[in-house]
TrEMBL record:
<dbReference type="GO" id="GO:0043041">
    <property type="term" value="P:amino acid activation for nonribosomal peptide biosynthetic process"/>
</dbReference>
<dbReference type="InterPro" id="IPR042099">
    <property type="entry name" value="ANL_N_sf"/>
</dbReference>
<dbReference type="InterPro" id="IPR000873">
    <property type="entry name" value="AMP-dep_synth/lig_dom"/>
</dbReference>
<feature type="domain" description="AMP-binding enzyme C-terminal">
    <location>
        <begin position="434"/>
        <end position="504"/>
    </location>
</feature>
<dbReference type="InterPro" id="IPR025110">
    <property type="entry name" value="AMP-bd_C"/>
</dbReference>
<dbReference type="GO" id="GO:0044550">
    <property type="term" value="P:secondary metabolite biosynthetic process"/>
</dbReference>
<feature type="domain" description="AMP-dependent synthetase/ligase">
    <location>
        <begin position="22"/>
        <end position="376"/>
    </location>
</feature>
<dbReference type="GO" id="GO:0031177">
    <property type="term" value="F:phosphopantetheine binding"/>
</dbReference>
<dbReference type="InterPro" id="IPR045851">
    <property type="entry name" value="AMP-bd_C_sf"/>
</dbReference>
<protein>
    <submittedName>
        <fullName>Amino acid adenylation domain-containing protein</fullName>
    </submittedName>
</protein>
<dbReference type="Pfam" id="PF00501">
    <property type="entry name" value="AMP-binding"/>
</dbReference>
<dbReference type="GO" id="GO:0005737">
    <property type="term" value="C:cytoplasm"/>
</dbReference>
<dbReference type="Pfam" id="PF13193">
    <property type="entry name" value="AMP-binding_C"/>
</dbReference>
<dbReference type="InterPro" id="IPR020845">
    <property type="entry name" value="AMP-binding_CS"/>
</dbReference>
Amino acid sequence: MTGSVGGPVTMNAEERLDDLLTRAARTHPDRPALVDGDRSWTYGELDEAVSSLAGRLAEQGVKPGDRIGVFIAKSAEAVIAIHAGLRAGTVVAPLDVRNPVVRISHMVRQGGLTRLLTVAASENVARKAVGGEEPPEVLPLEGGIGLLHTQEKAPAEPLPEPAREGGYVLFTSGSTGVPKGVLLSHSNVAHFAVWAAAETGLRPSDRIGSQAALTFDLSTFDLFAAAVAGACTVLMPERLKAFPADVVDWLTEQRITVLYAVPSLYVNMLERGGIGDAFPPGLRTLLYAGEPFPPRALEAWLRLAADRPVYNFYGPTETNVCTFLRLPATWTAAQQATIGSAIPGDVVDVFDETGELTSERGEIHVAGETVFLGYLVDGVLHDPTRQLRFRDGVVRRAYPTGDLGRRTSGGEIVLSGRKDSQIKRHGYRIDIGEIENVLLDSPEVRAAAVVAKTGAHEGELWAYAQGTVSEREVLGLLRTQLPLYMVPDRAVVVSAFPLNARGKIDRLTLAAEATSESSPLKETR
């Protein structure tokens, strides 16, 4: 793999995600497509369920280009609802039912979602989230799935042509205090799915262990690359993630052959799951993304994997996956780690602050087939890309990732941190500013800072607050506004913040501080 420019992927530029399922049902109608516990669907059965629900949506006035949220816990029903929304031509936004009501409300507003698909287990929360003095009733459709109208009016400003007939929205943490909607076109996601299925050699006999939340971009491989190959998607029960040994047992019992997960899950299976003593015999391909893999743990996994392929996929939600690296089996922790080079159809390179290519440390930019359409803010699309001239002399629409790195002489990219306050935690991208804004909105908090700790508490996220508030109240406030993965591990109330030479809060000092005067979140969760 050399250079920053990838070659073309053989696929229709207008490829639609719902076409992938239709084609799989026509080619492999009797092969298993989806497993959820003791329930299973063949491709023919899944396609029929999706078509039927899409038809019911059309009967209820849902039109191509409408924006629909899927407010269903990860399950077969959620998968069917996502596919049906896409088949109906809508812009589909998977939502996490575990989020606080206020955050769900933010997502509905930001995405301009006019309807939600839900089930009985989550409909009460859904009704609260859409607000209003009289929360609307849920209209039953079929298969236990119902339709709920939100208080949002259809956005006056139409989406650009690639999203007129539907698309995909994934929400990420935002520096303004509310989540941002990342709008991906059908072709953005389909391009990745088609390439990934070919690169990893997916085949109809494969069983993909789907552990990622449907709100997380890793899930697009589980759903759509599976459909490209006619492989089976097996949904892993959420409760297993806290018990690595049970995850290892599940991989064996379900005869999982391909796993795409965040490094923290792999590390837990290695350190607490006993996978070194009971490697799942069917597991043939390992993929990871979402956060750096600790070098020594990665080396240990490569020894366990032996000749099995191990891939590092890299890319922010805005590009899904834009670079990849198949790690050599002989790689060791003493060697330099890279995120590889661009997938075919994308171009990835490093630019300095003036927008010029650099061989030194700079910001990683991505152009090409997987780059999103833009952010949905209050229902309106905002495009943050810039026009840059790449190494081959071509000016392209490029997304600035915010990740810092440098280009090696062989054309691969070495990742070296962020240029802003974002961090990665358990694979989730978290903007520290969003957490701080929740605290600063409280009248009891005069000043706040959230830092990723270094030293003895490395890997932890701490919230510091100044004001008439207790440490427990700080954590309680954050839990009511944020998903659990964004809530800091500890809270510390201070009488004054340390300041740097510019008179601003000295975050480096806070990050390195080893105070014991704090409240561990684990005691109160």
